[in-house]
Amino acid sequence: MVDTMKSHRTFQHVVIVLLLTVVSSFLPAQVLDRPVAIVRLTETVNIGQRQLRQDVEMIERQAGRALTTSERAELLEERINGVLLNQAASRANVRVSDEEIQQAIAAQRQSLGQPVSDRQFEQLVEEQMGLSWDTFVAEITNRLVQEKFVLERAQGQFDAIQEPSTEETRFVYETNAQEFFNPLMVRFEHLFFDVRGQSDAEAAELRRKAAGMARQLSRGTTDFRTLMRESLDDVSYAGGDFGYLVNGDQEAVQRLGRAFTEAVFRLDEDEVSSLIESNVGFHIVRVTDRRPPRLPGLNDPVLPGESITVRQQVRAFVMNRRQQEIFEETVSSVVAELRDEAEITRYRDRLDW
């Protein structure tokens, strides 16, 4: 349910992605592109075969199969919807700020699940989406404008949404109980020797020092708390609380390595490990809390240490689902109105190439 809830919190962006804008249709290079549709609400826009083909090929790469002619026609209709919403938003003088644009771009970067530099993200956009950075930013901007336009039309309905009742909250929880199941998780402290940016010789020296500490701990000549305190004065390593490691967290596996995470999950509570190597360095781990898989109750926190309870999450889920329904209904009704008002010519015979 955590992932489901997250997806519903961002539903407005998800829906708008389907309403493809036609930024590239305004570029001079598209003048010689054979139109597959001509759309006019406030101005004439040609949706070119070349651009639609690029959209189709990108989706085919993601889907791993060829789109049918019918699916290509659906994609064309989505692009027509984007043109209509874009022109209607412009006519209504809807604007978005630079801050809103940067927040949307940051959200796209975070959705990758791993940190990337500005240049790496630009390369991903160019390689995986086939867009220049300027075109990508322009499309993000247009989608935000379209979203704001639709949200303004639906604001009254959003304000009228009712909070779910206690009975409805319990029903949603009970019928989706498997989505709330908490996997195995452990919280641990660690003595951490970071080898990132170190030479081979420096990394070898850190390993030697870490191994020596591990031997001292196993022989009882020192204790974990003492080494934690000494880390405050020793720049070669750090001692501190890692927080919870959740079984199945692929981001943690990718960052630290599967061998490291599996070694930590095998430890009992209060057990101190031997030297464990991760993708980023060497660790000596002490487990401070071990939580077996369990189904939390409605009044339990979603995850240990969090203030948000399962009940609050269920309520947010129901509210977001209602908002999504209103948003989608508003998109459909607005697009229907705009289609009645606009002039649209399609060349369906050009969908086969």
Explained architecture:
With 353 residues, this protein is of the alpha+beta class. It has two domains: 2-163 and 310-351, Triger factor/SurA peptide-binding fold (Orthogonal Bundle); 185-291, Roll (Chitinase A, domain 3), CATH 3.10.50. The chain is built from 13 helices and seven strands. The chain has helices at residues 2-9, 11-18, 49-63, 69-91, 98-110, 118-128, 133-159, 166-175, 200-219, 224-230, 250-256, 258-265, 310-341, and strands at residues 35-40, 44-48, 185-194, 238-246, 272-277, 281-291, 343-346. The chain has a four-stranded antiparallel β-sheet with strand order 4-3-6-5, with helices on both faces. Strands 2-1-7 form a three-stranded antiparallel β-sheet. A hairpin with a 3-residue loop joins strand 5 (272-277) and strand 6 (281-291). Helix 2 (11-18) crosses helix 7 and helix 5 crosses helix 7 (133-159). The longest helix is centred in the C-terminal third of the chain and has 32 residues, at 310-341. The radius of gyration is 27 Å and the shape is elongated.
